[in-house]
Amino acid sequence: MPQSKFEHLPRAASGPIECPYEGTTLMHIAYYNKGSAFPEDERKAFKLEGLLPPGIQSLEEQVERAYQQYASRPDDLAKNTFMASMKAQNEVLYYKLLQEHLKEMFSVIYTPTEAEAIQNYSRLFRKPEGCFLNINAQDKIEGILNNLEVEEDIDYIVILGIGDQGVGAILISTAKLAITTACGGIHPSRQLPVVLDCGTNNEKLLNDPLYLGLRQRRARGKEYDAFVDHFVHAAKKRFPRAYIHFEDFGLPNAKRILDKYKQQIPCFNDDIQGTGCVTLAALITGLHVSKVKFDDVRIVCFGAGSAGTGIADQISDAIATEAQKEKSEAMKQIWCIDKPGLLLKSQGDKLTPAQTPFAKDDNEWPDGEGLDLLSVVKRVKPHVLIGTSTQPGAFSEEIIKEMAKHVENPIVFPLSNPTKLHEAKPQDITDWTKGQALIATGSPFPPAKYSNVEKEIAFPGIGLGSILSRTRRLSVKMVVAASKALAAKAPALQDATKPLLPDVEDVREISVNVAKAVVQQAVQEGLAQEQGIPGNEDELEEWIRAQMWEPKYRSLKKKPAPKILLHMFGTKIINESAGFETMKPFTSRQKVSLKDRLCQVSWGWFSISMATGGIAILLKNTPHKFHGLDTIGKIFFILNLVIFITVFLCLGLRFCTKPSALRESFDHPNESYFAGTCLLAVATIIIGSEIYGTDACGPWLQVALRIVFWIYAACSILEALFHNWYLYHRSMASRQPFPIVRLLPSFPAMLAGTIASVIASNQPRNQALPIIICGVTLQGFGYIVSFFIYAEYTFFLNKKGLPSPPERPEMFIAVGPWSFTALALIGMAEEAIEKFPSRYIISYADPSFTGDSSVTASTIVLVLATMVAIFLWTMAFFHLCVAIISLVAACRVFGGPGMAAMSLTYWSMVFPNTGFVLATVRIGQVLQSEAVLWVTSVLTVLQVAVWLTVAAATIWAVGSRRMLWPEHMEKE
């Protein structure tokens, strides 16, 4: 087979795998194990000689033997247990066996056999698989996710919300993920099954001494919502690229939870969107065969639970899209019936949020007119009848014949499962309509002219397309596109007597077509974040296929055992087993152009500029200098200008290359908060220009700086007002749970006071006073706003504990407002003394003093400013210490989870802390304390060392493709 030009992509699983294990340890890890297929050279290299029989077999031979073992099992539950055991032993063999016998094994690894396995989970338990989270340990969720040892980054998470089967429902997650791999080619090591254990109301489980889950009644309401919310946000932090698949959340929660998160993250609810997508595909085919237009179709949905309303919602989206009408108008073409009968608006609070949009006006159904299914069918004369009621026999002969009186080809979908709960048997429907009905069912039946609505032909392809496109969210149009792609492969399009849906045996090819449709729609809507998606149809298909995992053995390459990590300067720092997070070599083979790398630059990169500018200001103000230090400061100032211009141009390139990127940057839950760093970088340039440019330039510089100051003041007000308004409007706080970063939109206003205190000294008196007043006003505004955020931040730390390691450097942001406010107060008070020494004189009588007994108001202001500044400084010192201890505590040597890989958040350790050192310098100068000033000199050295370390780490990360790389943009 010719090599694909896309085999360099990170998900294109080819080439050797690095393996750090050997001997029996290696054979117990399913990801690496090959069993009897280990070749001679690998047996020798990995110390497997004597641990395996001498015969070496091919994967095909292993599959044949495994199938014989499978077939010998006495019943389906035993076969299910056999497959679970094989999956835990040899990942490749499991999926190869499943792929070759998919149709036969489908009902064994999934419904209905999996239901029996779930009921017996605690009794059959051998080895855990997945992530178990319980509602009584919500504070540990982030730590648990951070401690997960995964061989690859996570792309696909299935989260279980089912209650009555308790913790055993994890098997649904694992089964779903097995299907996504077998059917959609999603790498099994890039998946994570999760169960949210909220307790159970199942008395049998609660009374079972072997039950492994929480022994308590199922939590509901706000407590349940908080648990789900905590997990979603923690998962988004730990696995920022992950697509989340909600499974079995039940009628009261499914629609509500999907609506809450679908605009925030790429997520999918199988009961609502999965069933709806496949049903819509069957409907599209059925309407094509029966020659009925979407604009004219009438649909009755019997059963208005999460599945029924999900299907109705999907269909109404399709009608609205295809018929080009409002969704509310499309919903008028659908009649939903639940236990009380037809849904009516008068039923009020009895309706769920998902049912309410489909409720009909009471005046459309006069008193005495029946609300039961037969009455509705007689009145509506539907083209389509869908059943999700789990009421066996609900579609009676009378109802089906009544429907057939009015439409030539009744489209009937009895979708309830298992088989015994179907509304009607396909053969009966065929007989009652004399072979004219178009039928799709939810479970398999003996041969008849019908299709089986299996969600498994849809959700793997939707997930694959979402992952590969890195879509920001799964839109309605993307799901409709998936339905159309499914319908396009229906055999009924070629022969009306054939099924309305493609067969599950062809699911691998179907998933390629579905994924292609999803990717194309994501690109069309501007939701795709992946770079380099081919525009050509054939190339796009090849691009997708190249990234689909195939169950085949790859050669193993010996990976050296953990050694002493080397610092980027070449000096030994710490043993990886005891200290920082292991730096796994990044071996992406993805080819990314320089332009595409530069387009990864985000607003947060301005933090490098402002940190560099902060060092330049600090070097100029440090009290103890050696010859040439000012020159070094000028170099930092010039470097700041270069960095600022470079980041500005890269952002311009990004926004011009993809016009929607600007809006997306403000909608991003992390990047949106860092837009203000651009103004903070400008502030350091203004101050640097004053302190380094005054001696070299003429009076024009002071005029220019005065104009720039007022522009900056206006921009900082606009940034604080409109950026915060936009964050409120978009409910961004719910997507960024770490509150301290919410300081950033108001932070530029707090630099206005610092700028005013610096540039006022060289301004004329009549210009200096307005500058100082403006500085005081904006400083006070920014500080008061930050004060409320500090309260939320403190509450966060008290309630949820320390943030995860990747966020801990951001704790240094809390040092900034206290420090810069203290710095600005003293600076502006000193300028008031210099500029206005004779105004507002206060005299007092003191017989013991023969000299001048008058003081200026500005002198008193300086004393008060210094006292307040010292108070503010102590708060900054407190937050500095908390941040430093928290950072150190994350190191493994102190029992922490390990520090996170290099990201832009580490620059938070520079700029806010320069404000702290500068405030300390000012206080030392006012108090005329040499001891304090010597401390600040030491702090300056340490701060420069931090800058050098973070700068070197950033250069190394960029060079080693850990930053400015598409796969890592979220983590930066």
What does this structure look like?
Strands 9-8-7-10-11-12-13 form a 7-stranded mixed β-sheet, with helices on both faces. A 5-stranded parallel β-sheet has the order 2-4-3-5-6, sandwiched between helices. It has a two-stranded parallel sheet with strand order 1-14. It folds into 3 domains: 126-248, 3-Layer(aba) Sandwich (Rossmann fold), CATH 3.40.50.10380; 271-546, NAD(P)-binding Rossmann-like Domain (Rossmann fold), CATH 3.40.50.720; 596-841 and 854-968, Glycosyltransferase (Alpha/alpha barrel), CATH 1.50.10. The protein is α/β, with parallel strands linked by helices.
Brief description of this entry?
The chain has 35 helices and 18 strands.
Layout of helices and strands:
Elements: E1 17-19, H1 23-27, H2 40-45, H3 59-71, H4 76-89, H5 91-100, H6 102-109, H7 113-119, H8 121-124, E2 131-134, H9 141-147, E3 156-160, H10 170-184, E4 191-197, H11 203-206, H12 221-238, E5 243-247, H13 254-261, E6 267-269, H14 270-290, E7 299-302, H15 306-323, H16 327-330, E8 334-338, E9 341-342, H17 373-380, E10 384-387, H18 397-406, E11 411-414, H19 426-432, E12 438-441, E13 451-452, H20 459-469, H21 476-488, H22 507-524, H23 537-546, E14 556-558, E15 564-566, E16 572-575, H24 594-598, H25 606-621, H26 629-657, H27 660-667, H28 677-693, H29 700-729, H30 747-759, H31 765-800, H32 815-835, E17 841-843, E18 854-856, H33 857-889, H34 911-927, H35 930-959
Parallel strand pairs: 1-14, 2-4, 3-4, 3-5, 5-6, 7-8, 7-10, 10-11, 11-12, 12-13
Antiparallel strand pairs: 8-9, 15-16, 17-18
